[in-house]
Amino acid sequence: MLAVCGLLAAASANAKAPEAVLLPSGRAVAPASAPPAVKEMIQAANHIRHRPYRWGGGHRSWRSRGYDCSGSVSYVMHAAGLLDSPLDSTGFIHWGEGGAGQWLRIYANHEHVFAVIAGLRWDTSMTTEGDGHGPGWSEEMRSTGGFRLRHPLGLLHASS
Question: Bridge-partner residues for 22, per DSSP?
């Protein structure tokens, strides 16, 4: 919960969060002004970004040979202290609060979940790394039709 407090302190309803940078290597770099929890999420995502897609991966243990969509989103949120145990995509539909968070946005439906962390999309499909099947970053947004938008409890809504 301390991570959520850090996000709250850094959030402002009127300011747009600076965006992370995606390096040519495929690693993301958090903005210097990002709250510690955001930096922890990005660091955790960078750690598993080369892992293959594996259905159910990341649900029995935080350490897995591969991750599915919800396992990879759960992994990065756990690193920031936002989750105690993994959720499946359906679990993310009701997680947190509705609407856009300034630093973290979760898009979930009954079949898929992905996150936008400091402006970069963290997803297991349609990413720019490798064949796009497995956890990775993308600067391109995907369609959000049919997804519910969520953010951590207590985190102020973004203005845009």
Answer: 28
